[in-house]
Structures are given as structure tokens and as C-alpha cells.
């Protein structure tokens, strides 16, 4: 009697399209069984769904002999319930004799119940349960199945040791030498298709790094060198070019040698020889009935490197420099060379349709077995004559069903390998609202391909209704199964077409990877070709996030290699992890990344970064509920947020960046101004030209240029869109009317441009709300005398912007302005407690060492700038100091203006996340220095360096930089003009006077100055300067007005006119806050959350003050927590800021306590 097994009852839910049924079963808990099994007859009796295993599992009896039932090839997943505990469980299907289910050691390890074998009880951690034990006759049960995958692996090893004669059918024994490994160890013949390495003209040889090796790796290196020198595969070298050499660990613990050929590949001219189209190959198999598949041994090592090219593939080790004489894994043109060789050798057989060849796989097919054998003998003969050999363990002989290039081929039948779709077919039944929402989020991506999608998904949407208990209904099960079926059939799923580019969307969670292989249809819509969802091994879960994301890509490339290897189009790999886009550049790699280098170099691919929320399909597949535990995951953070990147950027033939989407829009609009229409008509005649107008051809159509600037057609939306780029984007920084116009005029032209741009800027809500009101003051102004020097930063001003929220350890900004020549600025993060010694150090590093000693420094009366040590140091350097008077900083008006500008910039781009201003500071400095200022024809950047830096890609790209000599002349001329412009500006300033006040009227919209308002911004310093717009409800007097304010403000609504300013709306800009069309999510309107400002708890319920995207601040509203379930990222970011703020307060309190 076996005291290590017992029976327990269990139930599971059997779902069908029409009903849900509870099935009871008897299961054997057996710690001697190496798996979780279900009997074949039991599965058939209850018609349970099954899925094919990627690789069959061998089954052994206790004595080590193979089980009569043969290999395990299928499995099923069920939600089983044991005494109230429900778990999704995977069962391998095999013959169990009298048993229905066996729960073996893997189940016991995972569930970890407490078992008392003597008292016959199985106890969960919380709920003890006692089962009556029926001790089975353990001998036949465990004779039938006490297996593990370890035993299966042992069997595979034994299989390899089987004599060659037993692995090859007798009628092919005359060619046993073709299968013999020892005979295959030879130096390949010289052939016409030896591997060429043609380098680009600009290539410069480079010796790679020599990696230090462990004692075990050194031993392996010696063995590798000895073996390959003996075979002639490598020879000693004196090459000026060498790739790094290292080892990577295989799964079995052995080491594989690798060369990092990224540098040589980058400078190699690509061989465009195509791999055969899989669709063409598969078409030839439609009428075949019998198949034999053979695999060429050694692969690339069968091809020699062209004589004279060996030095280019050299590699460096700590034992010296060597170069290969045969093709090695990792060289970029290896697939093309190898396919070319195979196509050449078997040209006649391929042309006659007798075989198909894809890299090292040869598939032989025929209508009769005799024909197949005859043809196989012919192929073996040809392989022998061409000095090629086969790998017997990877050959399959004389079968009527075979797996080839991801398809299952049978007589008259071609189906996709079920493993390509298991990511969807194995999707577990949702058990929570969150899981239903995740499944529907995946489905919404494909809804346009599925007829009546809303009706089909209706029962699932009903589960998302609020204030109801979650209950999985038969209707929901039917909808779930039907949608899964729709995802894996036409028109959603498409057969691969190698004439079109492939797209991979890959993502990783903490527990699994997910990927979707896609292709676009004729309308540009992406359809899935295959799905992949795979859990991490325990060790893989400990990888860093970038390695997990990279592993998601590696798994996708491995799974779909037959589609992607040698693709004629670059494979676009879409990832939501920005760091991966830099992986192809030289950098220090860990051991794991080195192992993946050769695999990645086999593919022609590009990486495209997309923001996480847009990665719906792969993200959902990597977070399937059966892959993830119930606890929430910690979200990873992307280093560079997506708003710093402009979408749809591409390179033209001259490697210039251009905006492809904008280019397409411009060419699609036919409405032209009269002057442009005349020019286009004139230029359409080949024999005519125009001094101002030219035509610029693009792939989308013709763009009209006026004086080498892009002409924008007469379309309000287009002109508004382009103006928005040059005014609203972070690289533009919301400049004023003249700054926006000057920036636009560098690249674009249309009649009436000045008026349009001025009206656009007037109507900008962000500028009206965040910038200082610049109405001229009545007192006369006394502008600072200009410096006569044409040297930048000879006369500078300094000031501090203090009391900012702490960002990267800083709470202040030191502002330095070139007061005389360029109007350029230098922004340095610092602290409010900065000392005079630290200010002197910044002056030395940022000004004196770059531009020379300034003659004069203008500053306010801050202690840092009037301290004796500081002024004495300036005097010793010959610098004159001119501090302003207290509370009257007009001595330094230019710096005050810059302070206002940077405050406005940070208010616009950091108001929701104020602690990020440190990261935006370099961009703020760049936008100021690369834009024209009112009294200067040239930007500070041009006056400093002689050229205008490109920031925003145009529709046709940037022109080339001017030559050095012309730049020097331009700098000299521009600086002289700047001095004259400075003097002219002083004269104009003296003539200014304050404008007269225009009273407001009832119903007019106004902005309200926020200086006296207590609003929930985390930083008052960079909060908006004004709130609104608000409507005037009543005119109480010429200077007093009652406004309509939000109810939650609880502020007396009567204000003096000095706190109000008129709202300006213009046709050019359009509405201040465009009407936002909400998304329909789960049948409800949903608006996008821009940020969370504050929270409060009332009556046991939590509420958040929400700032809505594209809505005025007056639309801010308190929302209960359940209303923002779709803004989890924003919610997490808010609480992270709150926690950090509380920690800082706590530390500050402790310091005070100690004092």
C-alpha cells in the first residue's frame, strides 16, 4: 500500500457556447508523479478543449522504459475547485488507466498544502479539510506515469546516442556518410558564392575591446582556438580591424563563443539577395501527399569567406588576434550568402517544383512514397557532390504531416501552427472586473475588423457596470469564447505576406512577455499575424526592466524567425521602453546582453518607441491574469517622456529629418492663394522658371517653395497646426508674437502671415494665463547704456529665482544674461542658500572660461552679490559691479524679463509635475537662445556661433550649414548690427507711455490674477499667473466687477479691475480650449485626466481634484476615486509626489527638533 498518494474530489467548470456545466472528478494526489495529468478518455468523454504542445514530452515507466501511450502532445487548462479554493490549472493529457486526474509533485509544490498522510487530511493554510482516503493500487498507476521533463531530456540524450544506421531509413544507407558528423568536420571547398564583405567608403578600422575571461572561459577559449585552428576555420591575423570576443552561457551550462560584429556590420554594404517568400514556398506544397525534411549540418560554416576579406571579420582575444576563413554567426550578410548558395546548388529542383529550400531547411515532397524516396536519393547524391552534410536528429522522413515554417502541412491542407495562436486561445476566463476590462481593451483594438462587435461584447460590458456584484454568466462565457475565436480568424488574423513589411509590438511585465506580429493591409490598418504570450522563469523575473523588455523582443524574433529572417523590408519593432532604442549604439553590455548580440545582428530591424498606454495588444498579452499574481505591479518610468518627441519623423535621401505626416498634409491640399496658383501654373511648364518660386518633389506629391521656404496652402487648420508647432511645443516655449513669427519665417511662407501669427499668439490661452501682463508703466524708463564691445557676455546681469519646488536637489535658478551683445542666457540650477564663493565659481566655469572676463556685472542686492568677498574678487579681476536699489529692480530690467519668461515656460510645461523643472531647464535655455528677440535681427545662438540650430523638423528637412569663412563674416556683421539695435531699442523705450484703461462689460470673459488666491498647486512659484476664463456677472462700478467662479472655490466673487485682464479669442488660434470629444469606454463618456492637484476624504470616501486635458482651470472638479480608474498612471504619479513632499517635511521637522 502506497502511503504517499491519496484521492480527493474536485470540480471544474466546462464552458461551451450554449451553457456552463459543473463537472465532478476524482483526482489522485501523488508526490511520486512528475506532472499534472488528465486521462485521455476522460477528456474525450467531456469534450474538453485541448491545445497542442510546442514540443512533445516523452513518458517513461518506473523502470525507465517508454510508456505504451507514447508522447504527450496536448494539454488543457481548467479552473478547478477543491473545497472552495479555485485555481486555473494546466493538465497534460495521457492515458491514466483507471485514474481520471493525477495531481503530481509540480501541483504540490505550487499549492503547498499541508498533508497528513497518516490521518488522511489535506489542509490549506486557512481552511482545513478532511477527505476519506481510498488507497489506490499504486503499482499500475505509477507504472503508467511517474514522469518528469528531466526523464524526457534523458531520453532525448539517449536518442542522440542511437547508432546512425537506426536513425536513417534503410533505403538511404548508401548515403550514411552524408549524415556522419565526423565526415562533416572538414574545410569547405572554395565556391563562386564565397562570402563577400564589401565595406562602405567611410569605414575606418577599429580594434575592439579585449574582454577579461574567467578560468573556465580561458579553458574554453584554448579549446576553441585549438579546434578551429586545426580545422582551418580560423588563422592568426594582423588585421587593423577586430571585433570583441566573449563567451555566453547556454541553458545546459556550457559556453558558446561569440563575436560582437556590430561595428563591422554597421559599415558593411548590405546584400539585398532575398530569402524566398514563405507564401510562394507553401503554395508549392498544396497537392503533395508525402514529405521528407532534412537539415544542413554546420550551416554558415559550410561557406568560406572570400579570399582577401578575412581580415574584416577578425576578432581579438587575450590569446591574440585571429581571423575566420569560413562564415561565422553574426555577420550581417550571412543569411543572404547562404540562401544564394542553396538556391544555386538546387536551382533545377527548385525550378521544377520538386523541393523547397529555406536557409538550411530542405523540404522534399511528392504524390507517392516511391516518388518521394527516389527524389530524396537524388537530393542526397547532390548534397554529397557539393560537400554538404545533414544533421540526422533534425531530419524527418516519409511523413504525411509536417511542421514547416510555422505552418502544419498535410495533403491538401495548410493550417497555421496552433502554437502561434495560443497566446489568445489560452486566455483564461476573467474572474474580476479588472480582467474583463483588460480583455475588452485588447478587443477594442480590433473592433473595426469584427462585424457587430458591440453586440458581441455586450454581455462583457454589462459586467463593468457600477454598484453590482461580479457574476460570470453563460452569456458572458459565450461572448468571451466568440471574441477569442474572432481574434484568431479572418478578417482580424491575416496570413503572413513577405512582400509587405512586418511589425512587432513587444512588451514585458514583471511576470511575462507578450508580443504581436502584424502587417498592414492596403488601407494601412495593422492586422495580427500571430500572438505570443509566455511567462518568465524564476530567474528571468529578477532581470532589470530593460533586459525584460529586450527579452520580449528576443522571444518574438525567435518565435517568428522564419518570417523575419532575411526580410526584404526592415522589421519595425515597437517597444514602450525608450532605453532600448539606444541598444544598437556602442555601450557597456552585461553578460546577458552580449549573448543576445549575435541573434539581433541576424535581423534587419528598426526600433520605434511608443508610449506605454498605446501598446494595448502586447501589454495585455504580457499581463494575462494567469501570468500575473493578484498584487499590483510597480510601474517602471521612461526616462524621456513622449512629449519631447515629434511623431512621424523620418530621414530623406540626404539624411535630413522631416515630418512625414505634415508633408503628406501639405501635398493633399489643393486650395492655393492667387499668387501661389499663378506660380504653380507657370512652373508646370518645363521650360520656365521663377526667381522666387520653385517646386520640391516628395513621395506624397509636390511642395511649393517661396524663396526656399515652404508655402502653406490656404487652409486654416493647416496654418494653425504649423503655427502651433512653432509656438506651443516645448522646443518653441510659447514665445511672443515677434518670436513666433521670426521662427516660422525661417521655414514657411504664406500671404498675410504676420497678421495670422499675431492673432494666433493673441488668442493663446496658455500665454494669457501664465505670462506677466506687460502693459507699459507710467514712470519713465532709463535703459542701461550699451557696451561698445563686440564680445559676448562682456556686460552681464545676474539674478536668482528662488523658492521653487525641490528638483534633483535644487530649489533655485541662477540666471545670467548677456546684457550687451547677444541677449543670450545661462541658466544654472542651485539652492537659495548659495554662497558668494559658489556664485564666483559658477561665473568662472560658465562665463570666464568660455567667453572671457566680463567688464561689468549688474545684479540685485541679494547677499550673494553685495558680500565684501564677492565684490573684492570682482574688483581684483577688473569687473565693475552695479547692484540695483532695494525693491526697485528696474536697474536690471532685462534679467527681470528673462525671469518672467522662464517662470512662464516652467508654468506651462511643469505645472502638473513641478518637481521636474530641473529636467526642463536646459530646454528653456535652448529655446531662449535659439529665438529672435525684439531688438535683434539674429538669435543669441547665431550671434554666438554663427548658425541657427534646428529644433523643429520641417516638411522637407534642414539645409546645410554655411562654410566657416562665411560664418565668421556673418558673425562680425551680425554683432555690429546688434550693437546698433541695442541703441535703437533704448531710444524706443524712452518714448513709451502707459495706455488708457478700457472698462470691462457685463458678460465679457476675463482672466483673474492668481497672486492672492490659495489654489491647490504644489508650487506657487510656477503655477499659472491667472485663472479663468471667468464671465463678468455684474458691473458694480467702473473698476469693480462680480465674476462667476467655480462653487468649490468658496471665494468672494468681487474683484478690482487691476486684478482682471481681458480674454482674447482669435480666428487664427481658434477656441481657447477646443471642445473635447470624450472617448466612449464601457458605454460611458470618458475624459482624459491631465493631472491630479489635491485629494480629500469625506464621509469615508476619497475624492481627487482633477485637471482635465484641453479644459480650462475652471473645469477642475472633485471626483470620487472610482471615477478615475482608467488614470492609474496619473494617480500613482500624484501619490509619489505627495509621499516625497511628506518625507521632505518630516526630515525638515527632525532637523528643527535637533536644533
UniProtKB/TrEMBL annotation:
Keywords: Aspartyl protease, DNA integration, DNA recombination, DNA-binding, DNA-directed DNA polymerase, Endonuclease, Hydrolase, Magnesium, Metal-binding, Nuclease, Nucleotidyltransferase, Protease, RNA-binding, RNA-directed DNA polymerase, Transferase
Enzyme Commission number(s) of this protein: 2.7.7.49
A Pfam family reported for this protein in Swiss-Prot or TrEMBL: Chromo
GO function terms (MF aspect): aspartic-type endopeptidase activity; DNA binding; DNA-directed DNA polymerase activity; endonuclease activity; metal ion binding; RNA binding; RNA-directed DNA polymerase activity
Gene Ontology annotations for the cellular component aspect, listed alphabetically: nucleus
UniProt domain Chromo: residue ranges: 1087-1146
All residue ranges annotated as the Reverse transcriptase domain in the record: 229-409
SMART domains: CHROMO (SM00298)
Top enzyme class: transferase
Residue ranges constituting the Integrase catalytic domain according to the UniProt record: 788-948
PROSITE patterns hit by this protein: CHROMO_2 (PS50013), INTEGRASE (PS50994), RT_POL (PS50878)
GO biological process: chromatin remodeling; DNA integration; DNA recombination; proteolysis
Domain of life (superkingdom): Eukaryota
PANTHER family for this protein: PROTEIN CBG26694 (PTHR37984), PROTEIN NYNRIN-LIKE (PTHR37984:SF5)
Name this polypeptide is given: RNA-directed DNA polymerase
Organism: Candolleomyces eurysporus
Lineage summary: Eukaryota, Fungi, Dikarya, Basidiomycota, Agaricomycotina
Amino acid at each position: 500500500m502506497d502511503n504517499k498518494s491519496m484521492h480527493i474530489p474536485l470540480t471544474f467548470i466546462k464552458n461551451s457556447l450554449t451553457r456552463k456545466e459543473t463537472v465532478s472528478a476524482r483526482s489522485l494526489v501523488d508526490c511520486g508523479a512528475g506532472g499534472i495529468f488528465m486521462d485521455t478518455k476522460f477528456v474525450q468523454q467531456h469534450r474538453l478543449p485541448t491545445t497542442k504542445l510546442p514540443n512533445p514530452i516523452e513518458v517513461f515507466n518506473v523502470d525507465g522504459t517508454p510508456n505504451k501511450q507514447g508522447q504527450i502532445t496536448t494539454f488543457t487548462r481548467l479552473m478547478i475547485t477543491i473545497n472552495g479554493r479555485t485555481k486555473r490549472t494546466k493538465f497534460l493529457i495521457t492515458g491514466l488507466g483507471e485514474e481520471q486526474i493525477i495531481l503530481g509533485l509540480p501541483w504540490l509544490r505550487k499549492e503547498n498544502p499541508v498533508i497528513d498522510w497518516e490521518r488522511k487530511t489535506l489542509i490549506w493554510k486557512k481552511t482545513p479539510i478532511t477527505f476519506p482516503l481510498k488507497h489506490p493500487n499504486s503499482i499500475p498507476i505509477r507504472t503508467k506515469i511517474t514522469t518528469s521533463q528531466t526523464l524526457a531530456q534523458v531520453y532525448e540524450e539517449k536518442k542522440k546516442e542511437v547508432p546512425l544506421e537506426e536513425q536513417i531509413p534503410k533505403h538511404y544507407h548508401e548515403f550514411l556518410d552524408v549524415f556522419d558528423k565526423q565526415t562533416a568536420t572538414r574545410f569547405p571547398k572554395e565556391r563562386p558564392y564565397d562570402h563577400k564583405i564589401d565595406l562602405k567608403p567611410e569605414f575606418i578600422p577599429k580594434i575592439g575591446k579585449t574582454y577579461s575571461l574567467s578560468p573556465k572561459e580561458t579553458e574554453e577559449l584554448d579549446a576553441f582556438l585549438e579546434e578551429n585552428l586545426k580545422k582551418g576555420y580560423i588563422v592568426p591575423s594582423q588585421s587593423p580591424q577586430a571585433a570583441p570576443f566573449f563567451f555566453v552561457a547556454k541553458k545546459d551550462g556550457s559556453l558558446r563563443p561569440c563575436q560582437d560584429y556590430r561595428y563591422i556590420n554597421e559599415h558593411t554594404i548590405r546584400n539585398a539577395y532575398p530569402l524566398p517568400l514563405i507564401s510562394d514556398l507553401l503554395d508549392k506544397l498544396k497537392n503533395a501527399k508525402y514529405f521528407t525534411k532534412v537539415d544542413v549540418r554546420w550551416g554558415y560554416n559550410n561557406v568560406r569567406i572570400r579570399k582577401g576579406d578575412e581580415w574584416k571579420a577578425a576578432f581579438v582575444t587575450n590569446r591574440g588576434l585571429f581571423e575566420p576563413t569560413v562564415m561565422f554567426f553574426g555577420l550581417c550578410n550571412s543569411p543572404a550568402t547562404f540562401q544564394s548558395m542553396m538556391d544555386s546548388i538546387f536551382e533545377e529542383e527548385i525550378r521544377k517544383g520538386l523541393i523547397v529550400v529555406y536557409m538550411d531547411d530542405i523540404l522534399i515532397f511528392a504524390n507517392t512514397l516511391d516518388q518521394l524516396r527516389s527524389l530524396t536519393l537524388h537530393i542526397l547524391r547532390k548534397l554529397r557532390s557539393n560537400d554538404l552534410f545533414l544533421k540526422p536528429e533534425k531530419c524527418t522522413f516519409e511523413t504525411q504531416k509536417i511542421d514547416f515554417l510555422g505552418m502544419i502541412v498535410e495533403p491538401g491542407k495548410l493550417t497555421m501552427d496552433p502554437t502561434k495562436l495560443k497566446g489568445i486561445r489560452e486566455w483564461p476566463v476573467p474572474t474580476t472586473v479588472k480582467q474583463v476590462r483588460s480583455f475588452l481593451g485588447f478587443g477594442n483594438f480590433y473592433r473595426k475588423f469584427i462585424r457587430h462587435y458591440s453586440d458581441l461584447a455586450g454581455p462583457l460590458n454589462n459586467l463593468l457596470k457600477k454598484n453590482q456584484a461580479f457574476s460570470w454568466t453563460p452569456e458572458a462565457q459565450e461572448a468571451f469564447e466568440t471574441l477569442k475565436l474572432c481574434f484568431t480568424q479572418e478578417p482580424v488574423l491575416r496570413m503572413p505576406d513577405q512582400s509587405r513589411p512586418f511589425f512587432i509590438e513587444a512588451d514585458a511585465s514583471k511576470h511575462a512577455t507578450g508580443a504581436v506580429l502584424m502587417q498592414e493591409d492596403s488601407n494601412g490598418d495593422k492586422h495580427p499575424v500571430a500572438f505570443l504570450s509566455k511567462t518568465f522563469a524564476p530567474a528571468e523575473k529578477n532581470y532589470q526592466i530593460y533586459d525584460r523588455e529586450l527579452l520580449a523582443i528576443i522571444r518574438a524574433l525567435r518565435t517568428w524567425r522564419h518570417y523575419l529572417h532575411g526580410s526584404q523590408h526592415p522589421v519595425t519593432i515597437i517597444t514602450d521602453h525608450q532605453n532600448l532604442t539606444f541598444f544598437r549604439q556602442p555601450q557597456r553590455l552585461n553578460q546577458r546582453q552580449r549573448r543576445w548580440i549575435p541573434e539581433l545582428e541576424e535581423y534587419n530591424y528598426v526600433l520605434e518607441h511608443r508610449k506605454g498606454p498605446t501598446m494595448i495588444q502586447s501589454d495585455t498579452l504580457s499581463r494575462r491574469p494567469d501570468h500575473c499574481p493578484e498584487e499590483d505591479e510597480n510601474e517602471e518610468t521612461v526616462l524621456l517622456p513622449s512629449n519631447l518627441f515629434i511623431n512621424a519623423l523620418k530621414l530623406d535621401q540626404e539624411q535630413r529629418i522631416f515630418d512625414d505626416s505634415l508633408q503628406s498634409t501639405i501635398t493633399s491640399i489643393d486650395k492655393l492663394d492667387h499668387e501661389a496658383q499663378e506660380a504653380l501654373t507657370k512652373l508646370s511648364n518645363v521650360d520656365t522658371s521663377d526667381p522666387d518660386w520653385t517646386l520640391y518633389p516628395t513621395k506624397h506629391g509636390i511642395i511649393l517653395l517661396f524663396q526656399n521656404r515652404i508655402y502653406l496652402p490656404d487652409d486654416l487648420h493647416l496654418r494653425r497646426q504649423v503655427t502651433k508647432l512653432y509656438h506651443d511645443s516645448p522646443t518653441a516655449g510659447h514665445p511672443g508674437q515677434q518670436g513666433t513669427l521670426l521662427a516660422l519665417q525661417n521655414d514657411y511662407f504664406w500671404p498675410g502671415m504676420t497678421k495670422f501669427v499675431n492673432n494666433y499668439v493673441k488668442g493663446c490661452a496658455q500665454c494669457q494665463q501664465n505670462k506677466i501682463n506687460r502693459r507699459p508703466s507710467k514712470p519713465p524708463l532709463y535703459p542701461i547704456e550699451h557696451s561698445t564691445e563686440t564680445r559676448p557676455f562682456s556686460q552681464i546681469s545676474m539674478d536668482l529665482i528662488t523658492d521653487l519646488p525641490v528638483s534633483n536637489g535644487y530649489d533655485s535658478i541662477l540666471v545670467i544674461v548677456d546684457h550687451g551683445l547677444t541677449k543670450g542666457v545661462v541658466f544654472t540650477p542651485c539652492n537659495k542658500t548659495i554662497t558668494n564663493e559658489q556664485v564666483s565659481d559658477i561665473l568662472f566655469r560658465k562665463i570666464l572660461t568660455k567667453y572671457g572676463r566680463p567688464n561689468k556685472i549688474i545684479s540685485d542686492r541679494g547677499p550673494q552679490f553685495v558680500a565684501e568677498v564677492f565684490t573684492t574678487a570682482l574688483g581684483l579681476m577688473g569687473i565693475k559691479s552695479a547692484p540695483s536699489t532695494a525693491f526697485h529692480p528696474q536697474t536690471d530690467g532685462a534679467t527681470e524679463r528673462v525671469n518672467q519668461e522662464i517662470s512662464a515656460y516652467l508654468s506651462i510645461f511643469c505645472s502638473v509635475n513641478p518637481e521636474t523643472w530641473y529636467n526642463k531647464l536646459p530646454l528653456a535655455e535652448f529655446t531662449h537662445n535659439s529665438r529672435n528677440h525684439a531688438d535683434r535681427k539674429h538669435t543669441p545662438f547665431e550671434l554666438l556661433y554663427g548658425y541657427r540650430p534646428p529644433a523643429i523638423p520641417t516638411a522637407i528637412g534642414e539645409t546645410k550649414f554655411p562654410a566657416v569663412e562665411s560664418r565668421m563674416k556673418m558673425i562680425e556683421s551680425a554683432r555690429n548690427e546688434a550693437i546698433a539695435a541695442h541703441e535703437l531699442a533704448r531710444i524706443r523705450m524712452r518714448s513709451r507711455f502707459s495706455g488708457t484703461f478700457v472698462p470691462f462689460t457685463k458678460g465679457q470673459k476675463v482672466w483673474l490674477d492668481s497672486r492672492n488666491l490659495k489654489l491647490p498647486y504644489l508650487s506657487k512659484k510656477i503655477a499659472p499667473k491667472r485663472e479663468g476664463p471667468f464671465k463678468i456677472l455684474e458691473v458694480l462700478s467702473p473698476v469693480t466687477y462680480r465674476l462667476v467662479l467655480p462653487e468649490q472655490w468658496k471665494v468672494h466673487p468681487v474683484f478690482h479691475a487691476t486684478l482682471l485682464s481681458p480674454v482674447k479669442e482669435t480666428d487664427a488660434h481658434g477656441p481657447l480650449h477646443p471642445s473635447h470629444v470624450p472617448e466612449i469606454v464601457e458605454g460611458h463618456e470618458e475624459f482624459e485626466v491631465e493631472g491630479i492637484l489635491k485629494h480629500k476624504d469625506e464621509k469615508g470616501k476619497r475624492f481627487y481634484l482633477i485637471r482635465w486635458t484641453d479644459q480650462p482651470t475652471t473645469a477642475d472638479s472633485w471626483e470620487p476615486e472610482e471615477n478615475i480608474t482608467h488614470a492609474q498612471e496619473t494617480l500613482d504619479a500624484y501619490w509619489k509626489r505627495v509621499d516625497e513632499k511628506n518625507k521632505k517635511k518630516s526630515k525638515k521637522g527632525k532637523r528643527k527638533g535637533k536644533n
